[in-house]
Amino acid sequence: MKEMGVVLDTLATDTTAILSDSAQQAHCSVSLQLLTFANKEYAPLNDSLLHADILSPDYLSLSDRHFSPREAVDSFVRRYIDDYREFYTGIFTDEADAEAASISFKVKTSMEEGKDSTLNYLAKISNCQGAITTDYTVCLNLDLATKRILRLEDIFVHGAESSITDAIVSRLQKQAAVKSLVELRQAGFFVNSDPYPTQNFILKDNAITFVYVMGEIADRSKGEIEVEVKNSDLKNLFKR
Fold first, then answer.
1. Tens digit of each residue's pLDDT (9 = 90 or more) over 37-60
2. Are 36 and 98 in contact (CB under 8 A)?
3. Which residues on neighbouring strands pair with residue 16, listed in sequence order?
């Protein structure tokens, strides 16, 4: 990162709040570890990160106010706990329901060098509602040159989606040890939708990894699904 002139800052918070004085066993926990840019020139990227489905719900979009990263984190935690108390106080009956009325939200981020002037920003998120926990990864590709989060249409030429999809299906067939899309569906992938390239991807010098969250293209039991496609298989589709 230093070679790229990037200085990072870590915003961390660990907060646990009880539901109420009369329901102290039920609680809400929020644990956040967010990497942000200390360089003022990358402030636009910090703003984009705060609205990039990492802090969910996106409470910040409900306000016209501009938040610094620290203010945004503090505001999110307060609103998350307030909403928790407002919702669960009305349905909580007794201490026997404490587990069902307890929730947690955890985020841990990391950053690594990607393709060209891009940084890969990965957010590992765990959302627990009672006994049900959902773990997923938000993958973002930060372009230091334009100070924007890249989407597939920023990287690939117009009309490339069909060829990218074919490459994803081909690779996923190998991972699942099947020989056709029909067999892939029989194996439990893309049963309820046509194959598609997700905007949740990691762009590297030699490959692009498409990350499908749990339950997105297959049964939840298969967990998060990563499909790595070599850049050489897409070489005529890149804009640059």
1. 999 999 999 999 999 999 999 998
2. no
3. 29
